Amino acid sequence: MKKSTFFLVLALVVPALFSLAGILVSLEKVDFSVAPPLEQAPTEEDAEDPRPQAF
Amino acid sequence: MKTFDPGRFLSFLRFDVGARRQEVFLPLVVPPCVVVLMGILRLSSGEAFTTWPTTAFLMGLFLAVGAASKAHAAEKNPLTAPFFCLLPVSHAERFVARLLTGLALPFFGQCFVLTLVANLFAGLSGLLLPQGFGGFLWPEFKTLLNVGGGFFLLHSVFFTGGLFFQKSTGLKTLLCAMVYGFVLSLVGVFLTASGIAERASFLQAMGALLSAEETGVLEGYQTMTLVFRLSWFALFPLLLFAAAAFKARELEVRE
After folding, report:
1. Looking at the complex, does the CB of residue B178 fall below 8 Å from at least one CB of chain A?
2. What torsion, rounded to 10 degrees, do the Cα atoms A33, A38, A44, A50 define?
3. What angle do CA B96, B99, B105 make, to 5 degrees?
4. Residue B169 neighbours by CB distance under 10 Å
5. Record: contact A7-B243, CB cut-off 8 A
6. pLDDT (tens digit per residue) in B152-181
7. Share in percent of chain A as helix, strand, coil (round to 5)
8. Is pTM, for the whole model, over 0.90?
9. Residues B129 and B213 sit within 8 Å (Cβ to Cβ)
10. Quick check: helix, strand or coil at residue A3?
11. CA distances from B157 to B23, B94, B172, B235 (A)
12. What is the ipTM of this complex?
């Protein structure tokens, strides 16, 4: 294998594995019960939104 | 022949900048022109010039990323390749010169030029408008760090793509980067679906990664962020530059 191809494959694989491992390892320490909601929960005003529903 | 001779390097740098002056100087000329235009419009409408032009800076960096995919075009053109390959300059000198003109010059050159132009208009605002001089305009260090990291990453991708592809280098690199991102997302979704990351979904972890900096409530978040940022904003570009350096050398040997 050429050196350039080797380093290209290394560049594509190693950071992906590192970030994946970092995420998986840290998941054990992360307390998602105190995490901010990723999406805003619908409020009462949203539920009573008078806009017509899409068909 | 020495690997790196400063005199020879400077001589090649001068030659290379002259040969590719349009690509090298476009990011240094267009954004300041946009800022001048915006400044004139603002002053004529009675508004003071009070912010450093980050949008123009980003525009210039995108121009530089576009030019990065064409940095080695001269070595691939059959008409100019023999001339460029016979220049008395080492691989290392050629590579460092291309990085300087494509990476460091657009970033630091733009910082300097845009600060000059922005402060010129801030001063004019002080002279012409009743609000007075609002103070010197500087780019924020955190903005520079974030934007610089993104530019380093994108530049490395397009610079390497420019070496690995023969024609339509920018478009092919963009397509490959999109496919790579899509595959990574698929891996994340697969992990979530297969239960390997069943403690919390992969996407939720990514959401926490991106949003927890402002809240600071997540234990273990720092490890995740540090690994993620070091992987993508330092390790990935450096490995790509290594691949590009070897590919440039292989190209010249083949020619």
Report:
1. no
2. -160
3. 120
4. 23
5. yes
6. 999 999 999 998 988 888 999 999 999 999
7. 60, 0, 40
8. no
9. no
10. helix
11. 17, 18, 11, 12
12. 0.78
